[in-house]
Amino acid sequence: MHPCRVLFICTGNSARSILSEATLNHLGQGRFEAFSAGSQPAGRVNPYALEALAGAGISCEGLASKSWDQFVGDLAPPLDIVITVCDNAASEPCPVLFGNFVRTHWGLRDPAAVTGTPDAISAAFQRAHALITYRLTALLRLPVETMTPQALKLALDGIGTMSNDDD
C-alpha cells in the first residue's frame, strides 16, 4: 500500500495547513504523505509558521503557499484523506474539494489573525502547532491501512473535536 496521502486545506495556505503538512510528514515517517493547499493561497508561508516548525525541529524545505488546483484532475496525486482546518467559529469559509477520499474538518483558530507584539503572535502559532501535533499524534495511532472509510471518517471526526485539554 502506498503511504496514506493526506491533504490539509484552508483558505490562505500560509499557516495552519502548512503547519499540518510539515508536521505530519515529519511524524509520519513515510507511512503518511502530507500536502497542503488553499482555495485563495496567500502566496507566501507565514514566517511565524516557519519559526514554529523550526523550533520543533521540523524541516521547512519545500513548503509553499499553493492552490488546491494542483490536487484536482488527472495529474493530481490520489488522496486518501482531506482535512479542512479553517475555523467555523470565526465564520471563515472552508473550501470544498470533491473526490473519492475521506473528508473531515479539524477547526483551528487562525494564528495569523492574532495581532499584538511579536511574542504574542509567536505564542499563538506555538499554541496552534501544539494542537495540530496533538491531533496528528492521534491520527498516527489509527490503523488507517485496515480501516473502512466509514470507520476512518468517524475516527477522524472525533480527532477534530479534540483539544490539548483532552485526556
Automatic annotation (TrEMBL):
<dbReference type="InterPro" id="IPR023485">
    <property type="entry name" value="Ptyr_pPase"/>
</dbReference>
<protein>
    <submittedName>
        <fullName>Arsenate reductase ArsC</fullName>
    </submittedName>
</protein>
<keyword id="KW-0059">Arsenical resistance</keyword>
<dbReference type="Pfam" id="PF01451">
    <property type="entry name" value="LMWPc"/>
</dbReference>
<dbReference type="InterPro" id="IPR036196">
    <property type="entry name" value="Ptyr_pPase_sf"/>
</dbReference>
<dbReference type="GO" id="GO:0046685">
    <property type="term" value="P:response to arsenic-containing substance"/>
</dbReference>
<feature type="domain" description="Phosphotyrosine protein phosphatase I">
    <location>
        <begin position="4"/>
        <end position="142"/>
    </location>
</feature>
